[in-house]
């Protein structure tokens, strides 16, 4: 009988990337609170702890605890500092509440439904470029393409900027990785600077030339008792939409396709009832969310949680990917069931920082899954997905499938 290896969390371990759940199950049982040296804080693996700490008022999302970026960083990277200090995660609670009040009507379920025809057209056009049968890298040729094209289209940003926006989104996400080296951080800055320049140009053009049914115009006009979004808030918000509106949908759709193909009985259920596509996306995010590292919060004051002392200013990590496979959350948490009726969508966050673009992401993924499986009655995995080295996400740089438009 072999002795299990000592528990060690290494987010870049290839075996963890491919299937993190055996290790996460061990952590829940053997070490549900684990001090992660690389991240500089404690990781919580159990559902009860993650949900309690998500609701904990002494944890915040701002790593600077309201102090802003240090002067040396502002001096070296002023654009980046301004971008982050005005985003929804960094602004003080009062400003966050004001921004969400202005923005929530634009991103509610009813509002995003107005964009459904545009989303369907973009997805159909991408699928039309794929072969009727043969091998397809679905990650590079479809799932990576459609979310950023949708966001660019809704914001009416020229499509030739799409590759730059993909790079912009990935660079922004990379900068939030705890333990990122100064060299890695600095390498992201030219990409971010180029993305911000495009965003500013689009905003300036739309101020001069407002457009109907255009999200950029709606954001420029968003106001409450004459309290409009500032230029800095607009740039940061559009940048945030490019990140949140592309990566979650891209990686989530990849995982949904993979998980459905690994569970053919569930794919058969979806083919029989395509209206379950949105449910399938939610169940995938519950069953196998695409993160490599846990959600991070910061202690705004020192306090004790159980036997653990959480020190002011230190990160606190909540491993939701583990929490949603905890038997305390669901007795059959290791069962993938697209007919499962969820009482919430905690994988999009909780409370004030619930994902602003959740409704849009869910609608996009619903249409993408419905359209893909309607286009191809026969789909199968053609090879193991090739995972990249992104520091935050378990990205599928390649995901080969074999398709046929014939039954």
UniProtKB/TrEMBL annotation:
Membrane spanning stretches: none
Keywords: Heme, Iron, Metal-binding, Monooxygenase, Oxidoreductase
Stored SUPFAM superfamilies: Cytochrome P450
Gene3D superfamilies: Cytochrome P450
Pfam families, sorted: p450 (PF00067)
InterPro entries: Cyt_P450, Cyt_P450_B, Cyt_P450_CS, Cyt_P450_sf
Entry similarity comment: Belongs to the cytochrome P450 family.
Full protein name: Cytochrome P450
Upper taxonomic lineage: Bacteria, Pseudomonadati, Myxococcota, Polyangia, Polyangiales
